[in-house]
Amino acid sequence: MADITNDIRLAVESGNTALGIRSVAKTIRSSKSKLVVMASVNNKDNKLDIEHIASLAGVKVVKFEGNAVELGAVCGKPFPVAFLSVIEPGNSKILESINKE
Hints:
It is a single chain. The protein has one domain: CATH 3.30.1330.30. Strands 1-4-2-3 form a four-stranded mixed sheet, with helices on both faces. Helix content is 46%, strand content 20%. By secondary structure, it is an alpha+beta fold.
């Protein structure tokens, strides 16, 4: 997988995203989410829940190669981010770069 950190940062800064398991699950259920990014080190139950909800909704889930603290830093947040939902990518090309793979 290509390094998507810049695309994630751009999506958070210029697009519309949701952070956290509750917000991500809500965007998936309401058919707003176009892509879900999850930290590689994660609670197994939460990971399975999000993967299941996303598969039912037809939303692609991408694993970020860092932990939640690193994903939070990429998002420009001073706290851990385990799950990120891309609603609108803004200036980011994250949807195109993920679909190429």
